[in-house]
Amino acid sequence: MPLTEPHDDNLPQEEQVVAVPAAGDGPTDDPVPGTGPADQVQPEPEPSLPEPVRQRIVSLTAAVLPGLPADEVPVPLRRVAKFAPNRRARLGAPVIAAQLAADPLFRQRVTARVLADVGDLGAAVVDGTAPAAADPVEVAALAYLARPRGWRELIDASGAAVRAEADTAVVAELVRQAEQRATRAEHDRAVARVEADKLRDELARVREELGQLREEARQLARTLRESQSRERRASGLLATERGRAARAAADADAELRRARARLAEAEAAAGVARSSAKEARSVDDARLWLLLETIGQAALGLRRELALDPVDKLPADFVADSFSDSPAATATAAAARAQDTDDPARLDQLLALPRAHLVVDGYNVTKRGFGEMSLEQQRKRLVTGLGGIAAQTGDEVTVVFDGAERVHGLPPTPRGVRVLFSRKGETADELIRRLVRAEPPGRPVVVVSSDREVADGVRRHGAYPLGADSLLRRLSRS
Q1: Closest by alpha carbon to 61, among 84, 22, 94, 89?
Q2: Are the CB atoms for 65 and 81 separated by under 8 Å?
Q3: Of 63, 126, 133, 52, nearest to 92 (Cα)?
Q4: pTM (two decimals)
Q5: Alpha-carbon distance 139 to 110, whole Å?
Q6: How far is residue 375's CA from residue 364's CA, in Å, rounded to a whole number?
Q7: Whole-number Å distance between alpha carbons of 365 and 373
Q8: How far apart, in whole angstroms, are the C-alpha atoms of residue 385 and residue 55?
Q9: What are the tens digits of pLDDT across the range 265-320?
């Protein structure tokens, strides 16, 4: 391609340089006075340069341009010479290329400095030879500037070498892509073999389970037949027992008549017994008072003997401190607690139970009641409201939020309210279930959450699950 390039209209206005030949610079088509048409030599056209060669020529010229005296720099390039090194070759490329093509004297001055910088390679190019190991792009750029004999052939050879390198790079890329496809195909085959082995193992397992199910079906059929036989025998026994029951009813009627006679006799004796009952009741009251006093004294003695001090931590505090797993409550303890109810009025009844523990699923309540607020405002409003409930009822209150780390923005925790955040890898639902399992059997634990999974989980451990609306209505009344 030609060395010159069109003017770039996309450059900033202050960085665009217009190639305007200086007076007296470059060849001119006007005949020289005193010469005839035969003496005029037509200039040879500029060769078509490969893009790497053109860029290298511009780069070499831009590097030596600041070193030329100011009067040797063409007027269009004087502004380019003041550019920064990284901008000089990029922004001034069109003007540099135009001056090199149009001004032989400028090109000779640039060539002299470039040849002095490159050393032996420049001397070899000027002699018309180039080392075999030399970069063909560098050789072509030096040949264009120095223009020794055969310089066009050197440029053509450079173009062929550049095209050959490009073709080689394309072939290498195609080979690399083919190798990658082959590697992926081999990997896919290996994965398919592994999957096939897994499917075969799964098929064998399913067949084995099918055999077991068939054996179980045969056993169930045999059991069904035995049950039907027992049912027939039971029907026969039932008919026999009905006959016996009829005879027993007749005997009962006769016994009833005899009992009524004895009842009349007993009522007569009851009048006599009433008079002595008052005396017996006073004796029984004295005995009952003495029994209760004995039990109380025994309880005080047992406390002194066991040396039990008042506790300063509740079960939920241990979960909050260590988040360690607590043993699950037994099935008997779970059955002893109350069952689920969706009645909002139940919250006040449950909080009135002695030593009740209220556990709240924080974000489940706040997002249902005032989700338009920010999370910080939601937490603040809920914790403040729970502080009022704790102050009114005197119950233990724990609110649980999702969060691997304690978040900022919480107000000071009110008295009687415990605020917990689930740690990394654990949800608030799991922490709530652990709090319920940590409580002793028989203590009333109320869990407020509209999450069905949470409600079902705590119900199995004997807690009282209530919906979030019951707590929101309770807070609205406070």
Answers
A1: 89
A2: yes
A3: 63
A4: 0.35
A5: 16
A6: 12
A7: 13
A8: 75
A9: 888 888 888 777 777 677 567 656 656 766 766 666 666 666 555 656 677 777 76
